[in-house]
Amino acid sequence: MSAESVRKMDKANDAYASAHSPSPSFKDFPDQKAVLVLTCLDPRCEPHHFWDLPADMGPGIMRNAGGRVTEDVLRSIRVISTIMSYGRNTVGAVVIVHHTDCGMINFSDDFVKGKLKERHPGHDQEIDEMFIGEIKDLEKSLKEDVALIRADPFLPKDLEVLAFEYDVFTGKAREVKV
Amino acid sequence: MSAESVRKMDKANDAYASAHSPSPSFKDFPDQKAVLVLTCLDPRCEPHHFWDLPADMGPGIMRNAGGRVTEDVLRSIRVISTIMSYGRNTVGAVVIVHHTDCGMINFSDDFVKGKLKERHPGHDQEIDEMFIGEIKDLEKSLKEDVALIRADPFLPKDLEVLAFEYDVFTGKAREVKV
Predict the structure, then answer these.
(1) Buried b / exposed e across A27-63, counting CB within 10 Å, b at 16+?
(2) pLDDT-flagged residues of chain A (< 70)
(3) How far are the Cα atoms of A114, A126, A127, A131 from residue A121, in angstroms, in the given order?
(4) Which member of A52, A92, A133, B101 has the lowest number of beta carbons within 10 Å of its beta carbon?
(5) Which of residues 80-109 of B touch A (CB under 8 A)?
(6) Residue among B82, B11, B86 nearest A65 (CA)
(7) pLDDT digits (tens, 9 = 90+) for A43-89
(8) Is the pTM of this model over 0.95?
(9) Which of B26, B38, B94 to mutate to test the interface with A (most CBs of A within 10 A)?
């Protein structure tokens, strides 16, 4: 990222800040259960766009490669479950979105591990043991990830977990019953 | 999340899809190094807004509680580093953004762990060993997280890692030299 790119970012931010009204402070958040979305880091898969989500007071959005459930995702959901309304409320729903033409569909665990081994020799065993998160089948990956959240002992028993498939070509987000 | 909420989402998505042009497919991504942003899941901290980032072909955005570097974050960066241009390119820069009034500033590891133990008794040791990710000092947390990425043996040696502090009240994103 060049110094020029950073200057462009600063310029865009100056314009944004001059028109920005202060976001609500945490202490003024409404007393309600949190909703969290988990999806891919891919710039084509942006819940704010395809669900027209509000800025500022919409759901929290977790993003990683593929929108896969990992220990870090569980950490985030657990943290949110404890801090809403200073511990008096919790998380109500998690919505997982996987998408078509995802990097995790186009590339297998083997491809990624092969490249890592090639570029960073001498660490084959550590690389072999890495969780990569390939998606062979969108409904199957959603089912696995929903199950992982439902199985977590550190979340509310009545936590709703929903699954959606987002198509980057049609723009459609379709609920998948799992 | 009620059935009514899901219907609202579907309705918003219908409107979006009817106006949506297909996003580029992965095979048509430009042959260039990827840029990734890591930030908090907080809806007030949205890089698309405060940097006016383009949809579709902007940076990949990773988000979790606090924007902290975890194994999952390293997984995501490593994956992206291997799949750009089908293995012929890599990741060029990671930009980490932590923000004011973050949940990880307002609540300590002890608070979160205390709540988890209270709500889910019988798992104290496992909870004690969890990484929560509290932020006591924004510059310090950014420094730690930048160092974690720089130290990862599975990323390009010339990977640029930048740090920003976003103020949810002023809307300003300020680069922090670490």
Answers:
(1) eebeeebbbbbbbbbbbbbbbbbbbebeeeebbbbbb
(2) none
(3) 10, 11, 10, 18
(4) A52
(5) 80, 82-83, 87, 92-93, 95, 101, 103-104, 106-107
(6) B82
(7) 999 999 999 988 788 899 999 999 999 999 999 999 999 999 999 99
(8) yes
(9) B26
Q: Whole domain around residue B99: which residue ranges?
A: 30-176
Does residue B65 lie within any of the structural domains?
A: yes
User: Tokens 């959240």 belong to which residue?
Assistant: A149
Report yes or no: B9 at the A interface, CB cutoff 8 Å.
yes
For residue B18, being part of any structural domain is answered with no
**Distance in angstroms (rounded) separating the CA atoms of residues B9 and B3:** 10
In B, minimum Cα distance to A171 occurs at: B17
Whether B176 and chain A come into contact, CB under 8 Å, resolves to no
Structure tokens at B63: 């988000």
Q: Which of B25, B75, B119 sits opposite A130 (nearest CB)?
A: B75
Contact A48, B60 (CB under 8 A): no
Q: What pLDDT was estimated at residue A1?
A: 75
The arithmetic mean of pLDDT across residues B45-68, rounded, is: 92
- Tally the domains of chain B: 1
Instruction: Say whether B22 and A76 touch across the interface (CB within 8 A).
Output: no
Q: Compute the half-sphere exposure of residue B63: CA atoms within 13 Å on the CB side of its CA.
A: 29
CATH code (residue A51): 3.40.1050.10
Instruction: For residue A139, tell me if it sits in a domain.
Output: yes
CA A146 to chain B, closest CA, distance in angstroms equals 15
Q: Does residue A2 lie in a domain region?
A: no
